[in-house]
């Protein structure tokens, strides 16, 4: 197995940089209700996978990825801004095992604090060399808009009686995968990589990102609560049209379909009972295996793109692949 040495060193530097960000964003400034939630959400940790991917992609071509900590942190700040707002829309009580910002404060504060985070994300990009800044901002803007498009599709789906598998995959591509793609693409471009290689890294991130979201869908239903950090079965409780539910609605017949539709149409119910019942439907239809097969399809497509890139640093290449493979097998 590849030794994860570059990533560990970079994660340490990245975490130190991110934990110092509140000093620059405005911690201690007034009104404190605006800035304290930013410190709070950034202190919750997380995998930091997006900025780490950016740093590792840079390392494929140059040996000083710590020089783009600011740009990589911009991606993490933007990501946390989207989480803060998404949690409001999803009425989610937990984030990384602790109270969401709107639960700890309120929705209006979470909206405004998130807005400040978005502004500060752009400020962090300003450390980019002038000859690259316009392209980086353009790609960042494109991705930011796509993430919003994906979130709107996700909300639209709540009102749809049925959602196709293709529409769902497109939604998670926009909501989740494009930011992973940008992270890798941006790191490569900042290191002076050829645009064709930066595009392959983007495609790698896109496919891996779709696979990761399918993994999240699966974990939401089948994960160990103690390891997951979020409410297991939350998607079932909310009738969220995940890949699992879409396939179940497509495949269920007779009594199985009746059982599934019964629980989808209940407005008052015991949460644990509903989760248990719908999981039984998923088990009967083999939904877990179908989801795992779809995940593997996208993961393989991503690695097929990754293996085509040209790079200068073999150790970064192998380590980035290992990091991705480790994430594929995660349990939370």
Give descriptors for this structure.
332 residues, two-stranded antiparallel sheet, globular, mainly alpha, single chain, Farnesyl Diphosphate Synthase
Describe this structure in words.
This protein has helices at about 5-25, 30-45, 50-60, 70-90, 100-105, 105-125, 130-155, 165-190, 195-220, 225-230, 235, 245-250, 255-265, 270-285, 285-305, 315-330; strands at about 95, 100. It is globular, with a radius of gyration of 20 Å. It has about 325 residues and is an all-alpha fold. A two-stranded antiparallel ribbon has the order 1-2. A hairpin with a 2-residue loop joins strand 1 (about 95) and strand 2 (about 100). It has a single domain (about 5-330), classed as Farnesyl Diphosphate Synthase, CATH 1.10.600. The model has no long low-confidence stretch (mean pLDDT about 95). Helix 2 (about 30-45) packs across helix 6 (about 105-125). About 75% of the residues lie in helices and about 0% in strands.
Average pLDDT level: 93
Q: Output the CATH class name.
A: Mainly Alpha
Integer tally of domains: 1
Taking all Cα atoms into account, the compactness measure Rg is 20 Å
Question: Briefly, what is this?
Answer:
With 332 residues, the protein is mainly alpha-helical.
Give the secondary structure arrangement, pairings included.
Elements: H1 6-25, H2 32-43, H3 49-59, H4 69-90, E1 94-95, E2 98-99, H5 101-104, H6 107-125, H7 130-157, H8 165-190, H9 195-222, H10 225-228, H11 234-237, H12 243-251, H13 254-265, H14 271-285, H15 287-306, H16 314-328
Antiparallel strand pairs: 1-2
């Amino acid at each position: 197995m590849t030794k994860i040495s570059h990533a560990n060193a970079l994660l340490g530097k990245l975490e130190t940089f991110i934990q110092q960000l509140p000093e620059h964003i405005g911690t201690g400034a007034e009104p404190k209700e605006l800035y304290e939630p930013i410190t709070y959400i950034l202190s919750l940790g997380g995998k930091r996978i997006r900025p780490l991917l950016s740093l590792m992609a840079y390392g494929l071509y140059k040996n000083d990825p710590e020089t783009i900590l600011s740009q990589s942190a911009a991606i993490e700040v933007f990501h946390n801004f989207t989480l803060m707002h998404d949690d409001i829309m999803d009425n989610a009580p937990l984030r990384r095992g602790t109270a969401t910002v709107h639960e700890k404060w309120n929705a209006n504060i979470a909206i405004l604090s998130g807005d400040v985070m978005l502004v500060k994300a752009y400020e962090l990009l300003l450390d980019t060399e002038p000859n690259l800044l316009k392209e980086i901002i353009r790609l960042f803007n494109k991705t930011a808009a796509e993430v919003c498009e994906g979130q709107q599709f996700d909300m639209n789906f709540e009102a749809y009686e049925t959602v196709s598998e293709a529409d769902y995959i497109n939604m998670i591509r926009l909501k989740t995968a494009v930011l992973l793609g940008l992270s890798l693409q941006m790191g490569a471009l900042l290191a002076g990589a050829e645009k064709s290689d930066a595009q392959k890294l983007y495609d790698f991130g896109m496919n891996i990102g779709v696979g990761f979201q399918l993994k999240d869908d699966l974990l939401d239903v089948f994960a160990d609560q103690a390891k997951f950090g979020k409410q297991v079965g939350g998607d079932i409780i909310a009738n969220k049209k995940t890949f699992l539910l879409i396939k179940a609605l497509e495949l269920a017949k007779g009594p199985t379909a009746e059982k599934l539709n019964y629980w989808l149409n209940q407005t008052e119910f015991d949460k644990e009972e509903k989760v248990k019942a719908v999981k039984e439907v998923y088990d009967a239809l083999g939904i877990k295996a179908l989801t795992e097969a779809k995940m593997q399809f996208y993961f393989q497509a991503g690695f097929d793109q990754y293996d085509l890139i040209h790079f200068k640093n073999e150790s970064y290449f192998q380590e980035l692949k290992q990091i991705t493979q480790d994430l594929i097998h995660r349990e939370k």
